[in-house]
């Protein structure tokens, strides 16, 4: 698990194709002061990856076909800058929100305007993910925890303050570019709860309306 608070920016220093998938190497000398070990999890632009090799401030990650198909990693080249965050500890301050590092999909930046000292960015989300994005809710963009200002159909906007702009790769994003997004964990589990129980063959176990009522909430543990 992560918090969406970026610790440092790394740079892709190698992209190696290995038997159909990819091993990437990210240089992040700032992590030298941290105790990074083989097998540790690091969110790389919001994608949870496992450290498989460490050498002189360089960290190697094997990326599966599943991750490649649901992210932009297949498009990364040497020099691509990425946001980095190590997995949280039980003593870590939860400054952002709970982030799994499992990217849900890609959103496209459709506009970017100055808003006092910050930048207001409007993104277009895939239709199947838009329903999980709520006004004043949390969303993760390229691994960064942000608050949604407003939602209009499958468009949503966020504000990036100067500090966040400096310590992340938001300055590298241009209108038309795609970004990784991860929706709020609670929204996904709430949908699963509201759609009812389904058996292993996909058949509905509970009958009747899926609308929320006092009886429904009581049956599902809400008093």
Short précis:
The chain is mainly beta. The protein has helices spanning 65-69, 127-130, 162-167, 185-194, 214-219, and strands at residues 8-18, 21-27, 41-44, 47-55, 58-63, 81-86, 105-115, 118-124, 138-141, 144-152, 155-160, 178-182. Strand 10 and strand 11 form a beta hairpin.
Topology readout:
Layout: E1 8-18, E2 21-27, E3 41-44, E4 47-55, E5 58-63, H1 65-69, E6 81-86, E7 105-115, E8 118-124, H2 127-130, E9 138-141, E10 144-152, E11 155-160, H3 162-167, E12 178-182, H4 185-194, H5 214-219
Structural notes for this entry:
The chain has 223 residues and is mostly beta strands. The protein has three domains: 8-86, Beta Barrel (Elongation Factor Tu (Ef-tu), domain 3); 105-183, Elongation Factor Tu (Ef-tu), domain 3 (Beta Barrel), CATH 2.40.30.20; 187-219, no CATH class. It contains five helices and twelve strands. It has helices at residues 65-69, 127-130, 162-167, 185-194, 214-219, and strands at residues 8-18, 21-27, 41-44, 47-55, 58-63, 81-86, 105-115, 118-124, 138-141, 144-152, 155-160, 178-182. The strands form two sheets. Strands 1-2-5-4-3-6 form a six-stranded antiparallel beta barrel. The protein is globular. It starts with 7 loop residues before the first strand and ends with a helix.
């Amino acid at each position: 698990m992560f918090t969406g608070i970026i610790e440092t920016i790394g740079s892709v220093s190698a992209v190696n194709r290995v038997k159909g998938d990819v091993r990437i190497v990210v240089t992040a000398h700032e992590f030298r002061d941290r105790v990074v070990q083989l097998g540790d999890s690091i969110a790389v632009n919001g994608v949870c990856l496992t450290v498989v090799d460490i050498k002189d401030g360089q960290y190697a990650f094997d990326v599966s076909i599943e991750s490649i198909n649901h992210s932009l990693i297949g498009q990364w080249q040497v020099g691509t800058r990425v946001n980095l965050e190590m997995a949280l500890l039980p003593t870590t301050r939860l400054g952002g929100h709970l982030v799994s590092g499992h990217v849900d999909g890609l959103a496209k930046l459709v506009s970017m305007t100055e808003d006092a000292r910050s930048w207001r960015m409007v993104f277009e989300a895939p239709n199947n993910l838009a329903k999980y994005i709520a006004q004043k809710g949390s969303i993760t963009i390229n691994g960064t925890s942000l608050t949604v200002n407003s939602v209009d159909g499958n468009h949503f906007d966020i504000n990036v303050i100067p500090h966040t702009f400096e310590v992340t790769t938001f300055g590298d994003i241009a209108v038309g570019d795609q970004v990784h997004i991860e929706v709020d964990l609670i929204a996904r589990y709430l949908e699963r709860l509201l759609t009812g129980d389904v058996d292993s063959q996909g058949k509905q176990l509970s009958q009747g309306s899926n609308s929320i009522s006092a009886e429904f909430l009581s049956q599902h543990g809400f008093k």
